[in-house]
Amino acid sequence: MTNAQIFDGGTDGTAAGPAPVPAGSLNDAASPGVVIGLDIGGTKTHGVRFEGGTAVGDESAGSSNIQNVTPEQAAANLAELFGKIGGGRIERVYAGAGGIDTAEDAAALAELIRTNAPQATITVVHDSRLLLAAGRSTTGVAVIAGTGSAAWGRNGDGDEARAGGWGYLLGDEGSGYWLGREAVRHSLRRMNQGLHPDELAEALLVSCGVDHPNKLIALFHSPDTGRRFWAQQARHVVEAAAAGHKASQDLLKQAGKDLAELAYGTLSQLGIRGPVILGGGLGMHVTPVQEAFREQLDHHGIIDVRVLDQEPVFGVLELLGEEQEEALSPGM
Fold first, then answer.
1. Phi, psi of 47, rounded to the nearest 5 degrees
2. Which of 149, 160, 155, 91 is CA-nearest to residue 125?
3. 48 strand-pairing partners
4. Is the pLDDT at 308 greater than 80, yes or no?
């Protein structure tokens, strides 16, 4: 996997052929038929088609999150994805998306999806809910570290809590976008101090196609760049850190600490001690971030910390399995 893939929409969105049903997930005998699972990130929509509890199609298209693209673009990207993944009768669509903070947010996205699956029952949840389920847990805290960052959790009583997820203007600490922005700030600080660009700044200048740090300012505010562009620049921080660049190493460590604080804040609200599941492209694939994340949580006495080992969209099977269990035990 390349560093460019790490920061492309949070996770790389690839899968090698049909995947078996994870243990304890969807019961084939009670399978609702064709299910489309969607993981809708800030830069990409990852979709998987499940038939009889088995993944038979795995595709991606541009973001369909209306907090990041226009409703028209979101609709076009969804149409592209459903065109790739196959139509016919679809019984369920289960979608996880960032920025789903209200019932109105969920309803607006569901209406866009309904155009492509008019007969389906559509469920929309926050994307961190998918991540926790993909981590094979019904309780605990999921932390997304991709283009943006957020934490969500649930305890055994069914109480839910969140931290972060405020968007790039208000937060997203520890995310790919945050790292890209900090690389720009690092380059500008060196310029203000009269220092020549170091290896991180040089890599950033080449990637951005400019010949002086001062030109990064206009580029950063340009409508021609956006969250995805700057999140992709985080790869230069990862590469420089691996080559021994201390400022980049410090940035990755700070990212891990900030993500851990999101997790701890959510755990504290819920009154639980874990598990904590770290996902997203940055969280799943950048070892120094994982190490700092674990170390910071260890300071708080949190030791059940896991890194997600499958794409969040596969959490759909777990969520459907939970629905089945609840239906069989209505009094519980």
1. -125, 140
2. 160
3. 37, 58
4. yes
Angle at 121 between CA 19 and CA 23, to 5 degrees: 30
Q: How many CB atoms lie within 10 A of CB 170?
A: 8
pLDDT of amino acid 331? 56
- Number of C-alpha atoms within 13 angstroms, CB side, residue 324? 16
The tokens of 148 are what? 């943006």
Q: Report pLDDT digits (tens) over 72-119.
A: 998 999 999 999 987 778 999 999 887 777 788 888 889 999 999 998
CA 103 to chain centre: 20
Rounded to 5°, angle at Cα 262 from 256 and 263:
90
Q: Tell me the two tokens of residue 54.
A: 């088995």
CATH number for the region 176-307 comes to: 3.30.420.40
Distance CA 293, CA 296 (A): 5
For residue range 4-24, what is the model confidence (pLDDT) as tens digits? Answer: 444 444 333 223 333 333 333
Q: Across the chain, which distance is largest between two alpha carbons, in Å?
A: 69
Q: Using one digit for the tens of pLDDT, what is the confidence trace for 192-209? A: 999 999 999 999 999 999
In this model, does residue 151 exceed pLDDT 70? yes
Amino acid at 61: A
CATH fold label, 3-135+310-328: Nucleotidyltransferase; domain 5 (3.30.420)
Angstrom distance (rounded) from CA 89 to CA 33: 9
Residue whose tokens read 């069914």 = 158
Give me the residue spans of the domains in the chain. Answer: 3-135+310-328, 176-307
Using CA atoms, how far residue 183 sits from 120, 177, 178, in Å, is: 44, 10, 9
β-sheet bridge partners, residue 160: 154
